[in-house]
Amino acid sequence: MENTPSSQNAVEEKPAAEARKAYGTAKTENLRDSGLWRIILPAFVAVCCLVLLAFPLIILTPLFFSSLDAKAAANLIGKPLTWVWIVIFLVELGIIAVVVRGLIKIFMTQAGNYRG
Fold first, then answer.
1. Which of 68, 89, 91, 101 is deepest in the core (most CB within 10 A)?
2. Residues 81-103: pLDDT tens digits?
3. Half-sphere exposure of 4 (CA within 13 A, CB side)
4. For residues 88 and 6, what is the distance between their CA atoms, to the nearest angstrom?
């Protein structure tokens, strides 16, 4: 069989006429970025990380210092709870470190990627 143009029936199809409407978003939308969010977002994340770190410390510090008191109830019966507060403090610091690291990796790197 020969592949000649006369033996092939090529039909050129035109795409259907579509009604296109321009809503003007590309021309009227202000696409310029002030860059302010690159400052506000990392600052907000840093403040949230500090708050996340401060709350457990505010709660655990008085408990730890009261457990050091010789007149504390646990110390009077001979079962000091100082080690409990130290362990809880270290566990919370580990959890906070993981959360803060995740927040910094997510938000700080995204803000840095869009520098122009």
1. 89
2. 889 889 999 999 999 999 989 98
3. 4
4. 86
